[in-house]
Amino acid sequence: MSPKTIYDKIWDAHVAHEAEDGTCLLYIDRHLVHEVTSPQAFEGLRMTGRTVRAPDKTIAVPDHNVPTTAGRDDPKNMTEDSAIQVAALDTNAKEFGIHYYPVSDVRQGIVHIVGPEQGWTLPGMTVVCGDSHTATHGAFGALAHGIGTSEVEHVLATQTLIQKKSKNMKVEITGKLKPGVTAKDITMSVIGETGTAGGTGYVIEYCGEAIRDLSMEGRMTVCNMAIEGGARAGLIAPDEKTYEYCKGRPHAPKGAEWEAAETYWRTLFTDEGAHFDKVVTLNGADIEPSVTWGTSPEDVLPISGVVPFPSDFEGGKVEAAQRALDYMGLTPGQKLTDIEIDTVFIGSCTNGRIEDFRAVAEVVKGKKIKEGMRAMIVPGSGLVRAQAEEEGLADIFREAGFDWRLAGCSMCLAMNPDQLSEHERCAATSNRNFEGRQGYKGRTHLVSPAMAAAAALTGRLTDIRELV
Amino acid sequence: MEKFENLSGIAAPMPLVNIDTDMIIPKVFLKTIKRSGLGVNLFDEMRFDRQGNEIEDFVLNKPAYRDAQIIVAGDNFGCGSSREHAPWALADFGIKSVISTSFADIFYNNCFKNGILPIVLPQEAVDVLMKDAEKGANARMDIDLVAQTVTTSDGEVFSFELDSFKKHCLAEGLDDIGLTMEKASAIDTFEASASAARPWV
Predict the structure, then answer these.
(1) In degrees rounded to 5, what are phi and psi of residue A14?
(2) The complex's ipTM?
(3) pTM value?
(4) Residues of A in Cβ contact (< 8 Å) with B23
């Protein structure tokens, strides 16, 4: 048998039907659902008299458009449109009999944080959700990707997706990271290297010593932004850390079933000599704490750098860079560390897990955020929030002047009232710096949690290595 | 879904690279629980000022392009969020085809579910089509799905690649859930053997 990549193995284990032209029906093990991209899909089922084929494999949680302030179990405390979307999900979850974590449940949170936390996400699975950041679950050695609403309806009705296989891409991060450099800096640096379309048509396997050294939380951060590099999915082969994380989770297998599962999971690695269609290698020691300057995740630079000139680019990117500079209100040649920040947002499916909050607490402990700074910190789930309270992190945040909120997507996409105002400049731990992403004419600089914490203290983009 | 008929229409030039789905349909319009009516908010923040007045120099506000059915776009069109609201808004506005050097994966798939044909062509071809689109309303571009060609107003022809299954569904306006359900027995068989092999799933 010819050597296979981990992607090849998971793919082969899930093809339910293959047509002569190579079009496959890929069986889906876990379907995660949220309130914004699912109402039209459930409505479609109703209109055609179809049902959910595998309700026990379908998990719903409201996250995108929920308030992150107290009192939200009462719909009266939501904006009308949020209340309508949340109520629709409530009804659909009940009517179709799928697993559901309502806003009143401590387990509620961002769908990509809840899935792993509850043990729904396990190695070797296929996982989809009507959200591009589904790539997050790839950290477990699962094949996980975002889908559109029509595909959500297709999975609800058939538990399969019509797919053609992607190509294999290897992203290897060799060696050790330097102090102050995190998983976020790895994933942003990779996009800086490959561009936002560099992964189009591929599934990425992240590997190498620096990836192996990451915790599960860090690996989720890396895979989360695979989509920002254009890839269908990003994944990391499971290892002891993966099993350790999964063991004992509410929906993870137990006893003999666990033994059988672990034996299977240990076969999920890329065979020696397997073919990759594209290979990118970065030296972990060369990666610096990173920050975006523009309006695309590929506009990334080491914090020690300066704002680029449009003439540094080629082709269509010249005009895009000029447009980004105008939008961001930046001057070419300006030092990145001279950029002043009004707001800090810490949270999202990229960086809303306990380890992220520990990193923030380490930086801000016993200190105060800069006067006039708005600093919002939003846990990825109710359980992350509870754990941060228990570990004393929440007190550190509150004492430093952070606004410690309830779980949700919040200002990552700013659908709810958590938004930037015009020209407000934000250091954010989220994943997209697009025009208007965090609010109309809002300006976003993507950074790691530690870098966001540093910016909250100093009021400007700051090299975390200066503070530790 | 409507069948995709051969198209002869005005093409709007949007040379900007990395046009993302937040630009195509900003998140404030994702609060709907319907698929329809999003065309008025297509490219909202580029098309209108805060008072709701049209921004004159935005391409789709120019008289020549108000009835555009095709967009010729810069690289990596549709990147970002998986929101199908993006193709819903494009389709509702009347856009039937987008031409670029590359598309983001999820957006590309979403187009076919909504009767939109995304066409990938090399940079040199897109450059020619961009120039042709810049000529305005008198220059109509022709798209032939069956022949897989785009023809400029000057008669220059470019052939594009397209997955045969996607082409078939688009040309016939097929409901792919219905098609998949015809293979229910294959799914049943797979499900039974998979749950024996991996009972923890």
Answers:
(1) -125, 5
(2) 0.95
(3) 0.97
(4) 434-436
